[in-house]
Amino acid sequence: MSVAGIIVEVGDFKKFQTWAEIMKLAGLDLYEISSGKWKGRRKISKRGRSLLRKILYYAAIQTIRNNGILHDYYTRLTARGMKRMMALVAVSRKLWGIIYVIVRDDSEYLANFESIKRLLKVLLHRWGDYRFLLLRSCCDLLIEYITPRQHLNLY
User: What number of other Cβ atoms are within 10 A of residue 11's Cβ?
Assistant: First the structure.
């Protein structure tokens, strides 16, 4: 049901050039009103399509349940002291970005890609450039052999 609602609300994803444009469509873009020494709080603009925002909100609730794909992200945000509703909006923004990139690049979602990237960064820090490049090429081959999918580039 969520997919049908998203397709109806968005139409063609190819007409959006950047991640920020797709956030504005849903009304999930952040803004703040500050003046002088006074610094305002960041809020979502809510200027986009309310039905799309509602679909993403309910989809975000499903992704943060136990063993959901964004459960760890949500618990990290709430552990840092973010209010639960604000964390849920952050999960909605992240989910919307993932959906946009999957459709834009015509790729599949690779759930453990972030943990693989984190592991490669740690190994780069420990081993230096030469060994890291050899290990990275081996890991890339292994990833492509096990799951032949395109990797997501969110930015």
Answer: 10
Which tokens hold the place of 116? Answer: 């693989």
| Closest alpha carbon to 123 in 112, 111, 109, 138 | 138
Check if the beta carbon of residue 98 is closer than 8 Å to that of residue 152.
Answer: yes
- Answer yes or no: do 59 and 96 share one domain: yes
Here the tokens at position 9 are 């609300």
pTM of the model: 0.68
Based on the fold, state whether residues 81 and 123 are members of the same structural domain.
no
DSSP structure string for 11-80: --GGG--SHHHHHHHHT--EE---BTTB-PPPEE---S-HHHHHHHHHHHHHHTSTT-TTHHHHHHHHHT
Q: Which residue has the higher pLDDT, 29 or 118?
A: 29
- Is residue 155, in this structure, part of any structural domain at all? no
